[in-house]
């Protein structure tokens, strides 16, 4: 059997949370009806916030540029709806803090037709123009980090990209957006991959998919044209298989050196959603104004995979899914392992929001914390081979500087250690606290 | 009518947890010890129950006394005190006066655990510290072994058990030597089958090697135990004594005798593996286990005592922080380095 040789394909360590994907993995993507109010935070990507190019009261078309990149590590924003700029000011963001955003009121009678622009002649674009086009399309990493996609494309001189790696692992429990995209839009995925591969000058495209999505693997394989150098690599179901450095290890057997980037091992990694967004822009003229979101969890009445215009308040999304069940205690934006809890239903869906997960008492019940008994389960979980037990102890004693010797900054906060801890020690939070403290002090020193 | 939004919690991800908890892990060890405990009741009758009960009572009393007032119930619920008491009891001679057993449990928890800051902070295995205290304080009572209770009824109690505190321990009952003692001082070898099934004189829990192994396999299946530690201890002892018996088969014990005699299995599977007092790193576990195995053999063969498991583990406990420091795993994407 050929598939048997792939069974061992994986990184080392990691954890095995129940994947909880049954709720939505068979539900086709559907469109959320347009609502009235939209809020587009200017800083919904990693990096410098975007700069508004519209004024209050101005009418905007769906897909029209409303904010331009504020720097190189920044990206453009487009109006998700046809309507009027209601306000430009501070709105409450996902983390509860106020941050600048553009509020748009949708036209009640607009058709909201998606006819944003013509296809681009991407083949004749120079690499610089291509990179700028990706930036102006507002495309970011859609897996959750929302890191501007064009930054990864600009490779310094002398560095070569040989492999375009497409991340279809979707290792976070509950989430099924990439799964559904691979099933329903394999054509777009492969078109986008071809654009990216040719522009990067890579030799091949590799699509890594966890083996719990055999249908997606099948569908993609069926759509690969003979002239496309694409292979699909089934990966072991293990968290965090979708962390880019882990996936590189799983697929190519290479370790990206600490502090370096995938490009240093000649790989460029992009999420399935990002690649589809590239296809939508260059072939259909659609900038990034909507995304697929999985709405799931025990607290939601009708779980679904939805196309949601960016800026849609979570309230509208949840309402479309039949509302919250009684007993709802927490709503997570993103996955249950790395996502962020939201404080209010008025928070908008952002470019990096792959899921809206509604949890009840059962998931959020306060578990008693016990002292660390050095059982070592966190060491066996950590895909980076750190010593989370030691890091947590040091952080509790506020010995942050000592944590640097234990490579605290190599931690990607995947949460595996905390998931595995039988003493319920909030290891990730303790590590974050230390990182925040260390980087703030570094900033104030310089 | 507008329904009010639910009050949302802001617990940090990950929201999912695996099912194991620390008290569950502690209870697993209790379950794993159940067969060996029942065997000790079978072999030594009511005396075994009394000794184990006294140890647990002493340990739990210390837990209760030294816990913070508001956390008193909690510190008892994690089962670690009961486990310490049980482990200590299994290392004691069946004829020991009960008050000594109680004192051992009390000292084990208070000096072995509470004084360090409680669960997770101690350097030495509390049960073994309690035993070391008893051995230093009551050397005669701690080395007076009685024959197993083969014919007597379950309710027969060894006369030594009921000695009153600080009065001469009544050691006038029948005594017997342990297999290791016979080996060391009389050069008599006990048949392996007797060792494996426990038909030998010795402390309560060190008699039945097979039942101890059975519990160890259970713990390994439940991932409650770092298999590297018992494996490396037992392998070291096997290799060490194989080498010795090649030198002089008459004087030195055979490898299997070394493994199944004395407290080695009890120590290797249940005490050396105490996560708090053994290294957390995989490489450290190998070093710890090998070191323990070497020390056990050195004490048994060249030391003045017939048995050395307790001191071997305690010595390696002391080295654990150092071992941990120098065996940090290689971090992903970084070259080999020592830190």
Secondary structure elements and their pairing?
The complex is a heterodimer of chains A (446) and B (339).
Chain A: E1 29-31, E2 37-41, E3 51-52, E4 59-60, E5 65-68, E6 77-78, E7 83-92, E8 98-106, H1 127-136, H2 149-153, E9 163-168, H3 177-184, H4 186-200, E10 204-210, H5 214-223, E11 230-235, H6 244-252, E12 267-271, H7 272-284, E13 290-296, E14 304-309, H8 314-320, E15 328-333, E16 340-341, E17 355-360, H9 361-364, H10 377-381, H11 388-396, H12 400-405, H13 416-420, H14 427-445
Parallel strand pairs in A: 1-14, 9-10, 9-12, 10-11, 13-17
Antiparallel strand pairs in A: 2-8, 3-5, 4-7, 5-6, 7-8, 13-14, 15-16, 15-17
Chain B: H1 22-44, H2 46-66, H3 72-77, H4 80-90, H5 98-112, H6 126-137, H7 139-142, H8 179-186, H9 192-197, H10 209-221, H11 228-247, H12 255-260, H13 264-271, H14 282-302, H15 309-326
Helix pairs in contact in B: 1-2, 1-4, 1-10, 2-4, 2-5, 4-5, 4-6, 5-6, 6-15, 10-13, 11-13, 11-14, 14-15
Q: Which shape of chain A, going by the Cα principal axes?
A: globular
Approximate strand percentage of chain A: 15-25%
What percent of the residues of chain B sit in helical stretches (DSSP H or I)? 55-70%
- Report the CATH architecture of the largest domain in chain A: 3-Layer(aba) Sandwich
Distance between the terminal alpha carbons of chain A, to the nearest Å? Answer: 58 Å
Shape of chain B: globular
User: What is the helix tally of chain B?
Assistant: 15
Number of beta-strand segments of chain B: 0
Sheet-strand content of chain B, in percent, reads under 5%
Within the largest sheet of chain A, what's the order of strands? Answer: 1-14-13-17-15-16
Main sheet makeup of chain A: 6 strands, mixed
Describe the structure.
- The complex is a heterodimer of chains A (446) and B (339).
- Chain A is built from 14 helices and 17 strands.
- In chain A, α3 (177-184) packs parallel to α5 (214-223), α4 packs across α7 (272-284) and α11 (388-396) crosses α14 (427-445).
- In chain A, α5 (214-223) links the parallel β10 and β11.
- Helix content of chain A is 28%, strand content 20%.
- The N and C termini of chain A lie far apart (58 Å).
- Chain A has three domains: 3-25 and 127-284, Rossmann fold, CATH 3.40.50.11540; 32-107 and 289-363, Ubiquitin-like (UB roll); 377-445, no CATH class.
- By secondary structure, chain A is of the alpha/beta class.
- Chain A has helices at 127-136, 149-153, 177-184, 186-200, 214-223, 244-252, 272-284, 314-320, 361-364, 377-381, 388-396, 400-405, 416-420, 427-445, and strands at 29-31, 37-41, 51-52, 59-60, 65-68, 77-78, 83-92, 98-106, 163-168, 204-210, 230-235, 267-271, 290-296, 304-309, 328-333, 340-341, 355-360.
- The model of chain A is unreliable at 1-6 (pLDDT under 50).
- Chain B is mainly α.
- Chain B has one domain (23-326): Ammonium transporter fold, CATH 1.10.3430.
- In chain B, 57% of the residues lie in helices and 0% in strands.
- Chain B has helices at residues 22-44, 46-66, 72-77, 80-90, 98-112, 126-137, 139-142, 179-186, 192-197, 209-221, 228-247, 255-260, 264-271, 282-302, 309-326.
- In chain B, α2 packs parallel to α5 (98-112), α4 crosses α5 and α4 crosses α6.
- The radius of gyration of chain B is 22 Å and the shape is globular.
- The interface between A and B is large, with 67 and 43 residues.
